[in-house]
């Protein structure tokens, strides 16, 4: 009889959802985060602005602008293509309470630049061309 009771208790303990056993409460808070505001606006020129905030401190804003890029195709002909460029920011809180903020920009060639107050600055080129 003791073996049956012990087996039942063990089966119940093993079948508990793992997130209840996690020591990281912040992970559980993030999973239960509620979106408190959301916008998504498509503009007439094809660009887009979107943003959201959540009750756990997460914020994100982004603007997508379409640009025309001149390229030379494989036949040597000039073509124009529409490509997206991005500009935005996001903010979140780490487990220790520190708020991390980042801004980012991409150009029509896909170059990504990320900035934040705690990120190191690039070293200037001592021999600019």
UniProtKB/TrEMBL annotation:
The protein's name in its UniProt record: Larval cuticle protein 16/17
Keyword check for Signal: yes
Signal peptide: 1-15
Superkingdom as given in the UniProt entry: Eukaryota
Keyword Signal included in the entry's annotation: yes
Keywords per UniProt: Cuticle, Signal
PROSITE patterns: CHIT_BIND_RR_2
The organism's taxonomic lineage, starting at the top: Eukaryota, Metazoa, Ecdysozoa, Arthropoda, Crustacea
Single GO MF descriptor: structural constituent of cuticle
Alphabetized InterPro entries for the sequence: Insect_cuticle
